User: What shape does this take?
Amino acid sequence: MTLFFNKVTIIGVGLIGGSLAKLMKAQKLCGEIHGAGRSRETLEQAVKLGVIDHMGRGSAHAVEHADLVVLATPVGTFESIVREIAPHLKNGTILTDVGSVKGGLVRTIEGLLPPGVHFVPGHPIAGREKHGVGAASEDLFRGAKCIITPTEKTDAKALEAVTALWTKAGMNVVMMEPEQHDHIFAAVSHLPHAAAYAMVSTVAEFSAGADNYTTFSGAGFRDFTRIAASDPTMWRDIFLNNREALLEMLARFMEDAQAMSRAVRWGDEAYIVKRIEEGRKIRRSLIEMKQA
Assistant: This one.
């Protein structure tokens, strides 16, 4: 299929939105790219860097006549943005997103769109420690996975177009149900972030006195702080919008942490070694899959 959009609007021109814009420009997949978002300073920077061609006066203005609209803001803003832009989307517009929560949010967005506007929920699993449009790169997505979560309402041609877009970005596209997506990512992404925030906070409490424990930290602690440095607004929204799945994972994690605590207390060497070996095995498998 020929993949070309005359006008693309990206709402939220940060690392992911900006990288997608740079990719589409580099591969000549669009005529012009408009940007919208909360920060005028960010949009001005994006124009100056050549990431987008125009900045809208607001999201509603920016999406007018757009063939493709991408939601790349924190997931907690999706519903209010869709309510704002829905009346301004033309017939045939494809709306997609890059959010890491699907489930009920997908159904809500589908219910807000007028007939003839096609929503294709997406989640490119890509990122880096640096954030913002200044860190955007057309190579950000290469070799990574992109999850697309169509429903019975998803238009087939729109699904084909969004799949082709992420494939051109160099991503391995995987289809799954929205609820399955949320359960998986509660385990492999949302739980690790919640645990990292809690662990770093615990160490910070011990460092509040005369002794600063963090001055003695090594690579292990630094790995946790890298995760804990993630954008607070984005992760607040993820936690709250994937509440049930995350609570399930947190409950299981606390059970496992209590089991390790008992093993340490009572000197259960076999249990401790078993858990360490399991961790080493998973780490090795990630390295083999080039995900570490």
Summary: Strands lie at 5-11, 30-36, 54-55, 68-71, 94-97, 118-120, 122-124, 145-148, 172-175.
